[in-house]
Write a structure and sequence with these properties.
Layout (H helix, E strand, L loop, with lengths): L8 E3 L11 E4 L14 H10 L27
Antiparallel strand pairs: 1-2
Length: about 80
C-alpha cells in the first residue's frame, strides 16, 4: 500500500481577534509534518461572552432541552 497524505489545519472562529478566514494555521499539502499552534484561550473565552455569535445565549430553547442526570442513577446494561 502507498502512504496517503492529506492536509491538516487548525480552525478558529471567524470573529474579531481571529483570522477572518477562520484558519489559524495549515500544514503543507501532501507532506508528512506536525502542526503546532498557540491558541489564546482568553480570546476564546472573551469571544464566548462578547462575540457576534453567542451559541449558549442564542440557542433555540423550543428545539431541544438539557436534562441533567444525577450521579449514581444511571442504568446498568
Amino acid at each position: 500500500m502507498d502512504i496517503q497524505y492529506t492536509q491538516s489545519a487548525v480552525f478558529t472562529p471567524s470573529d474579531f481577534a481571529f483570522p477572518t478566514n477562520a484558519i489559524k494555521s495549515e500544514a503543507t499539502p501532501n507532506t508528512e509534518m506536525t502542526l503546532i499552534v498557540d491558541v489564546d484561550l482568553n480570546l476564546l473565552k472573551d469571544l464566548h461572552y462578547n462575540g457576534t455569535v453567542r451559541t449558549i445565549l442564542d440557542k433555540c430553547d423550543d428545539l431541544y432541552e438539557i436534562k441533567w442526570k444525577k450521579p449514581g442513577n444511571q442504568k446498568k446494561s
